[in-house]
Amino acid sequence: MPRKPILLGWGVRKEGRSLWTRNANRGVSLRGERRKRDGRVEWRQWNPKKSKIAAALVRTNRDPSELLPQTGSTCLYLGASAGSTASHIHDHVCGSGNHHGGQVVAVEISPRMMRELVPLADSRPGLVPVLGDARAPSTVAPYLRAKADWMHQDLSIADQAEAFVKMSEALLAPGGTALLSLKAASERLTEGGDFERFSNAEKVISESKLELVERIDLRGLEEQHVVFHAKI
Amino acid sequence: MDWGPSRSPAALATRLADLQSGRMSPEARALKDRFPDAESNPLGAMSDPDWPESTPDEQDLFSNATVILARRGVAESAADKDRRLDMLSSSSVELRAAWTTQEARSVEWAGLFLPDLDLDGMRSEIPQAISVAEGIDSAAESLGVDVPKHKPSEAEWEAMKSQARGVVEISSRLESNEEATKQLAREYIPTLSLLVGPLGAARMVVLAGGRERLARMPSGSLQVLGATGAMAAHRRGAPPPKHSPILFSMPLVSRSPRWVRGKVSRFLAGKCSIAVRVDHFNGEPWDEEQIAEIHREAEDIRDKFPKPPKRG
After folding, report:
1. What pLDDT is attached to residue A189?
2. pLDDT of B54-70, one tens digit each?
């Protein structure tokens, strides 16, 4: 008997252990994800082993829908890479043809990755590609129509937590959700192991204006990674 | 304020690029001139609740402009010499790796059929001779050895010959590739190229991930740049590496006795680090005379320690 899907938001649902988003670009898979039809809607599978947001949705101990942006809101995605995760966020926030009027600003510094992101933005209205440094608020600000309601940072540089705090304090609207994907291997080598580095980041976040909601360990889906869920 | 006739995606893209790089929009500048005491806030528009919403037309204009700007940025990356040097230098490394294995195979293959062939003395001529010969007999003749007793079959000879052709071709490709690398390196990092040779200098920049990053690196990192295996072993308790593969490729290091290699490469790494800073921060490139002096100094270091240090 098929399991009953649980809706986590307008465009995201969970069926058993797998996550699906309402495909905004019907008939197209980005990286060969599975697609399926349910009535008039096409759903596209969201792989938690390839996307840290999806992994966080699976692993969180709280209500997973708290991690997702509101449909039609303004979202900021720092370190979008080729845009796989950003496309799922776009599915949920903008919908097909951006009929929800959302905005997903995807920032990426590497021209090589931007090359993949540009055609994606072409086929998905509402997704804004930005080539620039995701650590400087002024490079991102001209593209945002208003302060962001939701942001996610996924950079592989040292001092991610400091950059995260700076960006979210500058660009996040009051009450907004901020997610930080932290990769231990990107931080500088310090005494102690990955645990030390995660605790350091946690300290940086809790000493800022942000309020730390949860620290989600992605072990098993994405090694050496945690996602910090914060609010402002 | 109305923008007038220049309201196009391309014009908006240029405008966005200006804002992104921290410049003020023309309107903001006009206002700033009129009210010099006012403080400009690039993030102000976002927190202003009365900021007008854009119309659907303007939203379209905006999304077209962002795509144009992103495309422009992608195209602009070809102007980055670091990326071009990376392509050239990495492709040289790959070609050289391919050449080594294929050349060795070609020589061994010929040696199997021609037992009298001097594989060391004639090494450089073998692939060329095989690649142009009609058959194994004529190859034996052109290499000056007896006709072999066992001959390869027709198909086998074709395979052997085309493999040898591949070696000859890869040699010429490697040559032109290295020539291009040298040219770019001499232009982009002249001082470092003089000091460690253009190919080594290019490799250093590529390993560091760009000239800027190499210039900002401490010379201790530069000394072991590329010695990844040795550094990994060092983290597990082995003694630290004395030099990177690039420094080792210099006769000053590799031809020196074992016990001074560390001292010489430490000295050279320091000089390399200064050299790349001269190149990156628009200093005056060193001339051959200054480079020769550095090499002399390195030789002095080597000559100061003629005997290995006593153990214990």
Report:
1. 66
2. 788 888 888 888 899 99
Q: Which two tokens stand for residue B164?
A: 């040898």
The whole-number average pLDDT for the span A12-19 is 88
Q: Is residue B3 part of a domain?
A: no
Q: B76: which 2 tokens? A: 């602009």
Q: How many domains is chain B built from?
A: 2
Q: Are residues B98 and B200 in the same domain?
A: no
Tell which B residues from 19 to 58 touch A, by Cβ distance under 8 Å.
19-22, 42-43, 46-47, 51, 53-54
Q: For B165, list phi and psi in degrees, rounded to 5.
A: -60, -40
Cα–Cα–Cα angle for A161, A59, A57, rounded to 5 degrees: 80
Question: In this structure, is residue B69 part of a structural domain?
Answer: no
How high is the pLDDT of residue A39?
85
Residue that finishes a domain, picked among B184, B211, B242? B184
Asked if A122's CB is within 8 angstroms of B67's CB, the reply is yes
The amino acid occupying position B12 is: L
Supply the pLDDT for residue A220: 86
Distance CA B19, CA B296 (A): 52
Gap between the Cα atoms of B189 and B206, Å rounded: 12
- Confirm whether the ipTM is greater than 0.90: no
B194 lies in the same domain as B254: yes
Test A115 with B74 for CB contact under 8 angstroms: yes
**Rounded average pLDDT over B159-163:** 95
* Chain A residues closer than 8 Å to B62 by CB: 128
What is the residue-averaged pLDDT of chain A?
87
If you search the block for the tokens 């090499």, which residue do you land on?
B295
Chain A touched by B176 (CB under 8 Å):
no
CATH of the domain at B260: 1.10.246.90
pLDDT of residue B180: 96
Indicate which CATH number applies to the domain containing A146.
Answer: 3.40.50.150
| Kind of pairing between the strands at A127-131 and A103-108 | parallel
B60 part of a folded domain: no
Residue reference for tokens 């996307």: A51
Residues B146 and B206 in one domain: no
pTM: 0.81
Query: Confidence class of residue B108 from pLDDT cuts 50, 70 and 90?
Result: very high
N-term to C-term CA, chain B? 83
How far is Cα A129 from Cα A117, in angstroms, rounded to an integer? 7
By three-state DSSP, how is residue B309 classified? coil
B252 and B150 part of one domain: no
